């Protein structure tokens, strides 16, 4: 299918905080022996990139005021685009689910029914003997389980001998002592969530699931109704339940002495012994710029070490003296140990910082470079041969979706690559679908080839980078991934698996996909409410107007072979990509309006090149139009630009490849990423001589 491409060979943010505020990090962090809380965050889990996402949220925006427009260099680097999205304000970039009440809202349903004057008093807690048998008395001082002591009038509970800041004091309502569900769930090590439809606080523990609702004495336990001594209530934003009922539901023992309530439950494990933290270096003394090899020799005879945290372990040092390095390890029981050592560096140079970076910066990582010096490198001349049979659709205008509608559509046949890139700027969830419709009188097959989908994500660069990475991974594998047979007059949603998650307000999605259309097929990019049938919606929705800034249209020649004569890298050189004066933008038409269109930035165009590269040459990528976050295919391997970060500006370069002692042919595939800026310069620099 692909021409001239080398073959590599292989929320609701709990508006009422669930009516159950959480403990602060500082207060919770000091609890000794507390179990981890699954689902401790009360927010509804918002979906981000699909499984296997290659880029974390936020990696593409170091500051809300960075210049990150998808201007492909047309806009100045000084222009502000909050969070890399061109948002009107940074505060708008991550909006709350519009269906939720404001985070500041105290509670739902009768939250003010408990007056401030009903806090617990010393005579409000009934003696244990007055109970009707709801709790079992226990010798809590002798128990081997967890122990919680709650004193009347105090918001500081004592858990296993350590003070814990509770969400609310134990309070009294109509003769019953109440405690906050949030604090109790956390101390028991259980999960907490909220059902927005039923307005229930949900606690999930080792003994099952409980659902509490404000004003109700009935608790749903694993689907069955269980009565409490008194109804659950809300107070100052917290869901409160009778402490005796909590003890009964959880199988805890309860004792009351004076103004104190003591709960005991479970068995407390004997504290695990700490692991042994240790590391070695390959030498006892290093020169300036000499690589340091660290080896973690930590061990634990009984448990698995699950985390290691280093501080000061620089790969090389560029100032003489003793440099402190610390390693902390944590075992599977949560017990930590640390070790501190010094690395001695003598006042003798092996490599300068620049030399070291070029020799040892890992592939996919970045190093500092003098951006002005790049422009002093010789520019490599090249020619471009387009594959006119490769058609291309770019649907990026309107980039910001404020309503439902058809973003773009055109009827085509043959090989088509499509690039879709949108941000949801409406006040509700939207989904973006690619729908194929057969206008003919006989069935037509649509074959889906390499595809990459990024998002939902918070940042345009995150989404664009993820999509390009996945597309190139799929391209390196090759082949058809799906075939959809569409009957005459019928329609089908393509790439369904990758677009199941809707875009919440402010989220972004990017798609690259190659299609083989074996007959006339109308391709429609549709933004619709996730609750609607997108095919049915297609017949009702209007075509959205262009935004006047971004690109939508149909083009030809979307595969380009870059041809360079001779050997590169014998001296510092640069190959410029994405500069319209050297590499013209694709020209096409907006099929909706019939007007001519240019693919500014050539986003979605696949450049392939086979270059003869001199021995001992560093191949790197330098962003020149602003930030760049994407990926390239180098000798069949996907290399992110950059791994875990982005190229922020012209003072950074990312390592793509290093040749060995012989001249090599290096095959490179490059597709400009949505959400990033052009041009980029591919650098070829002789490596410094290796020292002993």
TrEMBL record:
Q: Where is the PKD/Chitinase domain?
A: 276-348
> InterPro entries, per this entry?
Cu_amine_oxidase-like_N, Ig-like_fold, Mao_N_sf, PKD/Chitinase_dom, PKD_dom_sf
The Polar residues compositionally biased stretches are 110-144
Keyword Acetylation appears in the UniProt entry:
no
Coiled coil where? none
Q: Which UniProt keywords apply?
A: Signal
Q: Which domain of life is it from?
A: Bacteria
Q: Which Gene3D superfamilies match?
A: Copper amine oxidase-like, N-terminal domain, Immunoglobulins
From which residue to which does the signal peptide run?
1-29
Q: Does the keyword Signal apply?
A: yes
- Transmembrane stretches, start-end: none
Residue numbers spanned by region Disordered: 33-144
**The name this protein goes by in its record:** PKD/Chitinase domain-containing protein
From what organism does this protein derive?
A: Paenibacillus ihbetae
């Amino acid at each position: 299918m692909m021409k001239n491409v080398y073959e590599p060979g292989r929320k609701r943010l709990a508006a009422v905080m669930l009516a159950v505020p959480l403990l602060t990090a500082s207060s919770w962090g000091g609890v000794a022996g507390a179990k981890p809380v699954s689902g401790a965050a009360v927010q509804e889990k918002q979906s981000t990139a699909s499984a296997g996402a290659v880029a974390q949220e936020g990696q593409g925006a170091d500051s809300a005021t960075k210049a990150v427009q998808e201007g492909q260099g047309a806009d100045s680097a000084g222009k502000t685009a909050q969070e890399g999205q061109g948002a009107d304000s940074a505060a708008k970039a991550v909006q709350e689910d519009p269906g939720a009440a404001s985070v500041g809202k105290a509670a739902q349903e009768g939250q003010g029914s408990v007056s401030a004057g009903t806090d617990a008093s010393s005579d409000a807690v009934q003696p244990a003997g007055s109970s009707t048998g709801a709790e079992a008395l226990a010798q809590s001082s002798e128990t081997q389980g967890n122990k919680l002591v709650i004193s009347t009038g105090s918001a500081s509970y004592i858990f296993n001998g350590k003070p814990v800041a509770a969400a609310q004091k134990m309070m009294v309502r109509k003769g019953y002592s109440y405690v906050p569900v949030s604090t109790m769930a956390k101390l028991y090590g259980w999960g907490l969530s909220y059902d927005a439809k039923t307005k229930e606080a949900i606690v999930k523990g080792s003994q099952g699931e409980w659902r509490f609702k404000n004003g109700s004495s009935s608790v749903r336990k694993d689907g069955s109704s269980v009565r409490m001594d008194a109804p659950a209530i809300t107070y100052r934003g917290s869901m409160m339940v009778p402490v005796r009922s909590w003890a009964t539901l959880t199988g805890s023992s309860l004792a009351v002495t004076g103004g104190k309530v003591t709960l005991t439950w479970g068995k407390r494990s004997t504290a695990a012994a700490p692991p042994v933290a240790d590391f070695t270096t390959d030498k006892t003394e290093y020169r300036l710029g000499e690589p340091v090899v660290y080896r973690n020799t930590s061990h634990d005879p009984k448990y698995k070490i699950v985390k290691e945290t280093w501080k000061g372990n620089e790969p090389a040092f560029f100032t003489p003296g003793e440099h402190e390095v610390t390693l902390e390890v944590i075992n599977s029981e949560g017990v930590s140990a640390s070790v501190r050592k010094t690395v001695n560096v003598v006042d003798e140079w092996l490599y300068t910082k620049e030399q070291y970076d070029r020799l040892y910066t890992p592939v996919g990582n970045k190093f500092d470079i003098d951006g002005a010096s790049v422009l002093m490198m010789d520019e490599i001349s090249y020619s471009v041969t387009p594959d006119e049979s490769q058609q291309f659709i770019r649907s990026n205008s309107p980039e910001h979706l404020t309503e439902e509608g058809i973003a773009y559509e055109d009827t085509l046949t043959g090989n088509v690559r499509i690039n879709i890139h949108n941000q949801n700027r409406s006040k509700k969830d939207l989904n973006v679908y690619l729908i194929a419709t057969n206008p003919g009188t006989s069935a037509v097959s649509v074959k889906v080839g390499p595809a990459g989908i990024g998002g939902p994500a918070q940042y345009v660069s995150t989404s664009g980078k993820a999509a390009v990475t996945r597309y190139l991974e799929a391209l390196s594998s090759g082949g058809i991934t799906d075939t959809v047979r569409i009957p005459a007059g019928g329609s089908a949603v393509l790439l369904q698996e990758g677009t199941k998650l809707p875009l919440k307000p402010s989220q972004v999605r990017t798609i690259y996909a190659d299609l083989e259309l074996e007959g006339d097929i109308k391709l429609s990019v549709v933004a619709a409410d996730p609750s609607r049938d997108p095919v049915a919606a297609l017949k009702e929705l209007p075509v959205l107007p262009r935004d006047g800034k971004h690109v939508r249209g149909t083009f030809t020649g979307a595969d380009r072979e870059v041809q360079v004569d001779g050997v590169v890298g014998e001296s510092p050189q640069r190959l410029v990509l994405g500069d319209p004066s050297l590499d013209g933008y694709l020209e096409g038409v907006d099929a909706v309006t019939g007007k001519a269109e240019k693919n500014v930035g050539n986003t979605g165009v696949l450049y392939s090149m086979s270059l003869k590269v001199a021995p001992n040459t560093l191949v790197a990528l330098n962003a020149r139009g602003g930030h760049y976050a994407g990926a390239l295919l180098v000798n069949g391997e996907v290399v992110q630009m950059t791994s875990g970060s982005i190229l922020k500006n012209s003072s950074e370069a990312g390592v793509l490849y290093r040749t060995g002692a012989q001249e090599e042919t290096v095959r490179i595939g490059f597709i400009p990423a949505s959400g990033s800026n052009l041009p980029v310069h591919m650098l070829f620099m002789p490596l410094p001589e290796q020292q002993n």
